[in-house]
Design goal:
Blueprint (H helix, E strand, L loop, with lengths): L6 H15 L27 E6 L1 E2 L12 E18 L8 E9 L9 E3 L22 E2 L3 E15 L3 H4 L1 H10 L13 E6 L14 H8 L11 E2 L4 H16 L14 E2 L23 E6 L11 H15 L9 E3 L5 E3 L21 E6 L10 H17 L7 E5 L11 E5 L1 E3 L11 H4 L2 H11 L3
Parallel strand pairs: 10-13, 11-14, 11-17, 12-14
Antiparallel strand pairs: 1-8, 2-3, 3-6, 3-7, 3-8, 4-5, 4-7, 9-10, 12-13, 15-16
Protein name: N-acetylmuramoyl-L-alanine amidase
Pfam family, one: Amidase_2
Family: Belongs to the N-acetylmuramoyl-L-alanine amidase 2 family.
């Protein structure tokens, strides 16, 4: 099987990153975490903020301890668009139900109660990864996109002990309000309200900062420094570009590689990532053998014109609320089929993500914006998965319709160190016992594999 070497392609970008990053270093706190600082004079004003509010027993009786229902009564707050709940220990699961209702900004109109997906532990760095072992990472629910809001109410109900009553009885107890043996809620519950800010027009982006220059430089062989979009190429143009940049590596090969046309990709600058939030350095694995498909579980109410705002919100939630080094996914896809660069480090490179606990090494994570347990994903989004994987997996010689082996880093399906045979395009649930990427999206992965292989010319 033909396999393209990517090491030569790293040289120019690595030099550019080093030079750009050396211009200025982010401020660090005594714990080693990055501290936010004001934008330099004359630089672009990148909006966004996070409100973090402690939750407390709703009946006011703190003597009931962690088995009491906790929450926040109706409250006026600063503007936000995305909501989630975090707690102290990332290894503790929240067994129960989290619901939120919000008030649209400038109105008296409150939404109905909405459930927030509580099982989010499987979206994270591997257990022994430096990102996970900082002692700073928090447990969390999935984030939920609620739109422009300035009022919020939340309730967190503990689940009943499933060992005593069984899963169905426990769930029924939570929903009906029956009393029983409740599982304790995690310590340190906080409500996180994220404001992505308004999208500044391209003309007002301003000059590159050192951090944004470093993030852009790793893609400088694909688009000009500071570009907001990496343009699409035909399959022929994609092949010619590879031959031009990696001709020596390909000269001795007898067969042309299977690779799909490069899709259009909105860069981090394109979705207005605040680069001072993330950690400065980039983390890489050795190769890309597989792609894991996810849904963000943020809901389906966003418009495609809001996708950049949704991504900025997820990014801020991952970094400021959950305390990861960067957004967890390598790529994101909206319902209209637009593709977005995720974790910084270069779209052609094997960037280490934090998307599939136990299988982040030598893989990439693609998240479709939305929730697909019962809602069907649009064909444009499924096709975007096919186009993206045909190109990116093709760079590393992987067959989207084939199988591969990945070594587990530990999880609830496979012990650490076990070599697991997986589809090259897998769903998150193939590596971890989870509902992600939702049953409706998971059912479309066969179509994505076939289409991706066809784009590669197989």
């Amino acid at each position: 099987m033909f396999k393209i070497s990517v090491m030569r392609g790293y040289l120019f970008s690595s030099i550019a990153v080093t030079c750009a990053a050396a211009l200025a270093l982010p401020l660090a706190s005594p714990s080693g975490a990055l501290a936010e600082r004001p934008t330099a004079a004359g630089g672009p004003a990148i909006p966004g903020s996070t409100q973090s509010l402690p939750l407390a027993p709703l009946d006011g009786d703190r003597t009931l301890g962690p088995s009491a229902e906790q929450g926040l009564p109706q409250s006026d707050v600063r503007r936000f668009s995305l909501v989630g709940v975090v707690w102290d220990d990332p290894d503790t699961e929240l067994h129960g139900r989290v619901q939120v209702r919000t008030r649209a900004t400038g109105t008296s109109r409150w939404s109905d109660w909405q459930d927030i997906e509580t099982h989010n532990r499987e979206h994270s760095a591997d257990l022994d990864a430096a990102e996970r072992t900082t002692g700073r990472v928090r447990g969390s629910t999935a984030p939920l996109w609620v739109g422009d809001s300035d009022g919020v109410e939340v309730r967190v109900q503990p689940g009943l002990d499933e060992g005593a009553e069984g899963a169905e009885e426990a769930e029924a107890g939570v929903r009906s309000g029956r009393t029983g043996v409740s599982e304790p809620l995690p310590d340190g519950l906080r409500l996180e309200l994220v404001d992505p800010g308004d999208d500044p027009p391209p003309a007002s982006l301003g000059p590159l900062t050192a951090a944004s220059a470093a993030s852009s430089a790793v893609n400088s062989d694909l688009a000009p420094l500071g570009a907001t979009v990496i343009p699409a190429l035909s399959r022929r143009q994609t092949m010619e570009a590879l031959l031009a940049t990696r001709g020596e590596d390909m000269a001795d090969q007898r067969a042309q590689p299977y690779i799909g046309p490069r899709p259009r990709i909105v860069t981090r600058r394109g979705w207005r990532a605040d680069e001072k939030l993330r950690e400065r350095d980039f983390a890489y694995t050795k190769t890309v053998k597989a792609a894991f498909v996810h849904h963000t579980a943020t809901g389906n109410t966003y418009r495609c014109s809001q996708a950049s705002s949704v991504i900025r919100s997820i990014y801020r939630y991952h970094v400021k609320s959950m305390r990861w080094r960067d957004i967890g996914y390598n790529f994101l896809v909206d319902k209209c089929g637009n593709i977005y660069e995720g974790r910084a480090g270069g779209v052609t490179k094997p960037v280490m993500g934090a998307h599939t606990l136990g299988f982040n090494t030598n893989s990439m994570g693609i998240a479709v914006l939305g929730t697909f347990g019962y809602s069907r994903p649009r064909g444009a989004a499924v096709n975007a998965i096919a186009r993206l994987t045909a190109w990116k997996l093709g760079i590393y010689g992987a067959n989207p319709a084939g199988k591969t082996y990945l070594k587990s880093g530990g999880g609830n399906l496979y012990r650490k160190g076990k070599n697991v045979r997986l589809n090259v395009i897998s769903g998150h649930r193939d590596g971890f016992a989870t509902t992600c990427p939702g049953g409706r999206l998971y059912a479309k992965l066969g179509t994505a594999r076939t289409s991706s292989a066809r784009y590669q010319g197989r």
